[in-house]
């Protein structure tokens, strides 16, 4: 009998995952990850992890499976929280959920499961895995979940073949409503529990509140850049792309550089490192025909640049760049060689519609050029590329 350790989060998805695995004949162990209890960074007066841990334990008792909690707070602080603070301090936009899967669930947690002689770890992600054979070797395909509204393959875009070989996604072939119906019929306490909206395994927290515990407020100017600013006259977004022209690729994927002279001061903010490109809320500046969106942040001079409307030219870019060391191939066998290019579908954030793009591999890294301009591309985000339903690779946007 194969042994599986399920990451029981106290939510309905992981609860049903454990239930289905037991029905399928696996030896199932439930394990709750305690990832945060650092009082030096006060998140809220609530203890969401305690409530979640209790719910996970009750589910394990209902399913009559062994249950234990594991404290991964030290690793979580080092690998996720410290990284987040550092990235925001530099004016970048990290994705803690992608990092949590790569660094915690499918690394530290996986190793803990293997010490229990587990054959696999399982999570409640809405994605699917398929094993194929190529040249006599097993290759694992990471596929989108059946539920288009809940597909979470993007959050797993940094997994390796070794990690995928040990992973099970029991609910990937189901929709959310089907999962809740299974939980209801099984009389699981989590059947009607709302999905968590907080940081990965931390719980209910507003990101600005979280960041302000470590990043000190610092007053600075908010500058509005008009749609007709001279800086947009030769915007590389309009360049024709020649597949062999590296100079053009660099121009199209580079961010525009603003200065205080390009616009007018329209307000004040509490620190450029608290904001990210594409953000609308939190500026508290009204009286404009259209809402103000952040089009750039300068953490060195502590300036935020904004523009009116979601179609402001400062929000749009035709391409992005991923440095060589930040490229990751889930499918190593499909990796591009220097000088090669290929067509893939791509997205830069969870739930974003996939868009056609051409990937150009160069010595310095990967250039991704989209068919249509993308909104709010921010350094530090993860871009992922797909062949149909299969996630092929990903990278950190430079």
For the structure shown, list the relevant keywords.
alpha/beta, Rossmann fold, Elongation Factor Tu (Ef-tu), domain 3, 3 domains, nine-stranded antiparallel beta sheet, 18 strands, globular
Structural class: alpha/beta
Fill in the CATH topology of the largest domain.
Answer: Rossmann fold
N-to-C span = 46 Å
CATH class assignment of the largest domain: Alpha Beta
- Which percent band covers the strand fraction? 25-35%
Q: What is the CATH superfamily of the largest domain?
A: HUPs
Total domain units:
3
Number of strands: 18
Q: Name the overall outline.
A: globular
- Taking all Cα atoms into account, the compactness measure Rg is 23 Å
Largest sheet: 9 strands, antiparallel
Helix segment tally: 8
Question: Mean pLDDT score, rounded?
Answer: 91
Please provide a brief summary of the model.
This protein is α/β, with parallel strands linked by helices and 398 residues long.
Describe the structure.
- This protein has 8 helices and 18 strands.
- It is of the alpha/beta class.
- The protein folds into 3 domains: 3-211, HUPs (Rossmann fold, 3-Layer(aba) Sandwich); 220-238 and 254-315, no CATH class; 316-396, Elongation Factor Tu (Ef-tu), domain 3, CATH 2.40.30.
- Helix 2 links the parallel strand 2 (27-34) and strand 3.
- Helix 1 packs across helix 6 (176-185) and helix 3 runs antiparallel to helix 4 (96-115).
- The N and C termini lie far apart (46 Å).
């Amino acid at each position: 009998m194969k042994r599986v350790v399920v990451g029981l989060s106290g939510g309905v998805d992981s609860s049903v995952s454990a239930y289905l695995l037991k029905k399928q004949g696996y030896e199932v162990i439930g394990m709750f990850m305690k990832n945060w209890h650092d009082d030096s960074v006060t998140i809220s007066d609530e203890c969401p992890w305690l409530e979640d841990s209790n719910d996970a334990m009750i589910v394990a008792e209902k399913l009559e499976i062994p249950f234990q909690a594991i404290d991964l707070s030290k690793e979580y602080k080092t690998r996720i929280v410290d990284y987040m603070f550092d990235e925001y301090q530099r004016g970048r936009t990290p994705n803690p959920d992608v990092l949590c899967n790569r660094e915690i669930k499918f690394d530290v947690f996986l190793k803990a499961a293997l010490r229990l002689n587990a054959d696999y770890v399982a999570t409640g992600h809405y994605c699917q895995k398929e094993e194929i054979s190529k040249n006599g070797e097993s290759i694992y395909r990471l596929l989108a979940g059946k539920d288009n509204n809940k597909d979470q393959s993007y959050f797993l875009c940094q997994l390796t073949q070794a990690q995928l070989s040990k992973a099970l996604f029991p609910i990937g072939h189901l929709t959310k409503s089907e999962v809740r119906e299974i939980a209801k019929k099984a009389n699981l306490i989590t059947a009607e529990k709302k999905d968590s909206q907080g940081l990965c395994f931390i719980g209910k927290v507003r990101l600005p509140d979280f960041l302000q515990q470590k990043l000190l407020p610092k007053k600075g100017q908010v500058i509005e850049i008009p749609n007709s600013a001279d800086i947009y006259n030769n915007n590389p977004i309009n360049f024709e792309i020649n597949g062999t022209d590296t100079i053009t690729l660099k121009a199209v994927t580079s961010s525009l550089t603003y200065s205080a002279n390009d616009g007018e001061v329209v307000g004040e903010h509490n620190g450029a490192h608290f904001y990210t490109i594409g953000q609308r809320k939190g500026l508290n500046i009204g009286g404009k025909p259209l809402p103000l969106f952040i089009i750039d942040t300068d953490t060195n001079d502590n300036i935020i640049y904004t523009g009116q409307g979601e179609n402001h030219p400062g929000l749009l870019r035709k391409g992005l760049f991923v440095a060589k060391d930040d490229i990751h191939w889930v499918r190593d066998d499909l990796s591009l060689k220097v000088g090669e290019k290929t067509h893939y579908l791509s997205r830069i954030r969870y739930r974003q519609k996939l868009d056609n793009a051409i990937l150009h591999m160069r010595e310095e890294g990967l250039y991704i050029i989209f068919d249509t301009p993308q909104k709010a591309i921010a350094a530090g985000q993860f871009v992922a590329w797909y062949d149909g339903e299969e996630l092929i690779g990903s990278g950190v946007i430079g």
